[in-house]
Amino acid sequence: MDTNFVIEKFILVTVIFAISLVIAMYSTYAERKVAAFLQDRLGPDRAGPFGILQPLADGVKMFMKEEIIPSSSNKWLFLVGPGLAMLCACIGTAVIPWGQDITINGKVMPLQVTDINVGLLYIFGVVSLGVYGIMIGGWASNNKFSLLSAIRAASQNISYEIAMGLSIIALLLVTNTLSLKSIVEQQSSWHWNVIYQPLGFLIFMVCSFAETNRAPFDLPECEAELNGGYHMEYSSMKLGFYLFAEYINMFVSSTVMATLYFGGYNYPGMDYMATILGPFWAPLFGSFIFFMKIFAFIFFFMWVRWTIPRFRYDQLMNLGWKVLIPLAIANIVITGIVIALVNNF
Fold first, then answer.
1. Helix (H, G, I), strand (E, B), or coil: what is residue 68?
2. What sections of the chain are H helices per DSSP?
3. Number of C-beta neighbours around residue 176 at 10 A
4. Residue 301: band (very low, low, confident or very high) from pLDDT cuts 50, 70, 90
5. Residue range 40-53: average pLDDT?
6. Contact 52, 44 (CB under 8 A)
7. CA distance 281 to 284
8. Which residue of 7, 278, 306, 318 is 20 to 30 Å from 114, comparing CA positions?
9. For residue 1, pLDDT beyond 60
10. Domain ranges in the chain?
11. What is the tens place of the pLDDT at every residue in 302-343?
12. Residue 237 to residue 331: CA distance in whole angstroms
């Protein structure tokens, strides 16, 4: 195997992993600032200018806290749970195309760890594995509230994965590919898939809220009923892993939505900018635009959390099984009919 190829991929993986952790870390700060803005208060403002060092203070606090493992827990699985949740959250970024191929000293380097032809299925596989970290942690804690929370999380994820998968089928009818890079390349200029699949995007976005356990779908963590949820018995950085995994999942979900429906790194006037900026800076500018789309979705996640109240559990299940799944099936049928008519005429 080419040594330079391995070094390039190692550097790219390291950079993406670091970016994911930094965004997750500062999403906690942004969440508190957005909540403070919506509630007409200041939010964190002590650690550093404007409280900008608050995430570092929280991280140090997590590392310095005492490690507590309940005596009645399954100790090995108790340790595996948060690690698995964090691992599944991070590996989803491997197939995301972060920008066009960049040219450095005449050598072309893709800004994507790997472009597999079933990248979309890979994302769904990783997402479906994430619930195991929650289930293992809730069961291994040997706490009835943690177990109830884990069962809620599993049933919620299974329910909404069906509607999410059906919404993607309609998108596949339009794109005819499972490769994320090919899907992005088809969305040049303003040819974004959200224009052709508005209902599919809406279903996918609602399911993303449920898959990441974000409000108003945060039933696995509701404090009033479950005393904190599946990570109630966790402390120190094991608790930090669960909290970090949620924010990384939010980042990955925002990335996937921007990739599938909003053109990824594409933007109007892209070819013109390429002639001005050159083969090095033009892809980086596209990546910058991509991250602006991602940050917009992250802000939307936070805005919804501090605006809409939590569903009851029966409302959550009714929405998933009786509303979203029928809508997703109808979207597939309508999309198929429209494509057939367009091809015939």
1. coil
2. 3-38, 54-64, 75-90, 119-140, 144-175, 180-185, 193-196, 198-211, 223-226, 236-261, 270-305, 313-318, 325-344
3. 10
4. very high
5. 90
6. no
7. 5
8. 278
9. no
10. 65-344
11. 999 999 988 888 999 999 999 999 999 999 999 999 999 998
12. 43
Interatomic CA distance for residues 260 and 18, integer angstroms: 23
C-alpha 331: how far from chain center:
23
- Phi-psi group of 23: left, alpha or beta (phi > 0 → left; psi -120 to 50 → alpha; rest → beta): alpha
**pTM recorded for the entire structure:** 0.94
8 Å CB contact between 96 and 112:
yes
CA dist 236 and 32 (Å) reads 21
User: Within 13 A of 322's CA, how many CA atoms are on the CB side?
Assistant: 6
Q: What is the CA radius of gyration of the chain?
A: 21
Residue of 126, 164, 156, 159 whose CA lies nearest to 221: 156
Spatial separation of the C-alpha atoms in residues 133 and 149, rounded to whole Å: 12
pLDDT of 299 higher than 90 = yes
Give me the mean pLDDT over the 25-36 stretch. 94
* Cα-Cα end-to-end distance for the chain: 50
Q: Compute the distance between CA of residue 185 and CA of residue 97 in angstroms, rounded to an integer.
A: 10
- pLDDT tens digits, 56-75: 999 899 889 888 888 888 88
Give the pLDDT of residue 104.
Answer: 82
